[in-house]
């Protein structure tokens, strides 16, 4: 073999082990890098999981049976915008949101979206009154004159009369709206000033009863209504998606009316919500409203006797304590600023349906429709 060729082979043979070692080194480094990245990915996943849980407190519950699936289809046909929660024998079988929370920003409603519950809040004011009665701070037969003696006939109007809206109290709400104020003290002062009384004290749905009840609560507890609501309802009932109207609260839905061009937004002033002291300036998610009603049936909050007395109607009437006692069920309804809230549930509180919508007009009310849906759920129970 020629010497030159031997030298070339020898040099080449020396380079092979070096290249092989270099290749092994690169593979080893690559493996370590890959392992490092995998470990970081695991760490990132572990770290990020609690954050997801914190931001998604309540989960969508898809239809769990044929009943809830049927209800969903009926809602879709009506282009329902809002949240529906259906419960049967104390268990939620549907909790789902539809439509826009903010159409301009393309933000969809979720099960955590909060809607103005309107007059459903009257039931919560009534609950606060009953708590005051339980603690001996107030009596249902106590007279309005003990708190607002300047109101006509106040010496013969009882707290129970006001709870049942059978007091004869009246007011021109336009005069309160003209104040254009956020100050509850101004609203209460003008309400007391403008309140009159009808000759006939039979049932008449007049929100002024509950504005004055809110004022009575403030006197009894020596605190403002909102602080009392938060202390006696939100905190003990662990309601995490309940708040008073605020432009800064991004969980509160905007409301729309129905038009030929689709949902039409129209701004509602903060003072308009403030006017509804104790009667319609609270926002809630459907699940929080459900938990509120469940708490209402818990002896820790109200005994059966307390609840029966609060919801005791006068002969020939249906309304008492912020809710209607119907033949087959309990019924709560609230409308404010194109929001509509409806709660229909069995008299034992175990089966029912809650609808919260942020698209409403007089012709597009869900009231009768929600009652039909309740009958569908109850019939299957």
TrEMBL record:
Keywords: Membrane
Domain Beta-lactamase-related, first and last residues per copy: 76-316
Main location: membrane
PANTHER family per UniProt: D-ALANYL-D-ALANINE-CARBOXYPEPTIDASE/ENDOPEPTIDASE AMPH, PENICILLIN-BINDING PROTEIN 4
The keyword Nucleotide-binding is assigned to this record: no
UniProt xrefs under Pfam families: Beta-lactamase (PF00144)
Gene3D superfamilies linked: DD-peptidase/beta-lactamase superfamily (3.40.710.10)
Cellular component GO terms held in the UniProt record: membrane
Name the record gives this protein: Beta-lactamase-related domain-containing protein
Localisation per UniProt entry: Membrane
UniProt keyword Membrane, yes or no: yes
InterPro entries associated with the record: AmpC-like, Beta-lactam-related, Beta-lactam/transpept-like
């Amino acid at each position: 073999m020629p010497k030159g060729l031997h030298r070339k082979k020898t040099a080449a043979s020396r380079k092979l082990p070096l290249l092989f070692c270099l290749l092994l080194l690169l593979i080893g480094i690559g493996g370590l890098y890959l392992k490092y990245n995998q470990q970081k990915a695991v760490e990132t996943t572990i770290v990020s999981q609690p954050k997801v849980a914190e931001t998604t407190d309540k989960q969508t519950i898809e239809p769990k049976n044929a009943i809830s699936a049927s209800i969903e289809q009926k809602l879709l046909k009506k282009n329902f915008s809002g949240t529906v929660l259906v419960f049967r024998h104390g268990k939620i079988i549907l909790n789902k949101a539809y439509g826009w929370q903010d159409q301009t920003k393309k933000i969809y409603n979720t099960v955590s979206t909060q809607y103005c519950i309107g007059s459903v809040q009257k039931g919560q004011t009534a609950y606060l009154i009953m708590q005051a009665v339980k603690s001996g701070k107030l009596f249902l037969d106590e007279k309005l004159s003990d708190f607002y003696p300047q109101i006509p006939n106040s010496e013969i109007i009882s707290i129970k009369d006001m709870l049942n809206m059978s007091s004869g109290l009246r007011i021109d709400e336009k005069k309160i709206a003209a104040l254009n104020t956020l100050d509850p003290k101004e609203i209460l002062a003008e309400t007391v000033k403008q309140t009159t009384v009808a000759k006939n004290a039979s049932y008449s749905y007049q929100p002024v009863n509950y504005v004055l009840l809110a004022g009575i609560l403030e006197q009894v507890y020596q605190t403002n209504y909102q602080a009392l609501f938060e202390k006696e309802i939100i905190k003990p009932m662990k309601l995490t998606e309940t708040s008073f109207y605020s432009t800064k609260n991004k969980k509160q839905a905007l409301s729309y009316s129905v038009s030929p061009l689709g949902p039409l937004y129209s701004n509602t002033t903060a003072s308009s919500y403030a006017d509804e002291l104790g009667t319609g300036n609270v926002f809630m998610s459907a699940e929080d409203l459900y938990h509120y009603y469940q708490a209402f049936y818990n002896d820790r909050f109200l005994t059966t006797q307390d609840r029966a007395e609060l919801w005791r109607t006068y002969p020939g009437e249906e309304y008492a304590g912020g809710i209607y006692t119907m033949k087959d069920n309990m019924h709560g309804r609230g409308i404010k600023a194109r929001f509509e809230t409806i709660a229909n549930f069995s008299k034992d509180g175990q089966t029912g349906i809650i609808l919260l919508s942020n698209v409403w007009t007089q012709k597009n009310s869900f009231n009768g429709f929600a009652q039909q849906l309740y009958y569908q759920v109850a019939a299957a129970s």
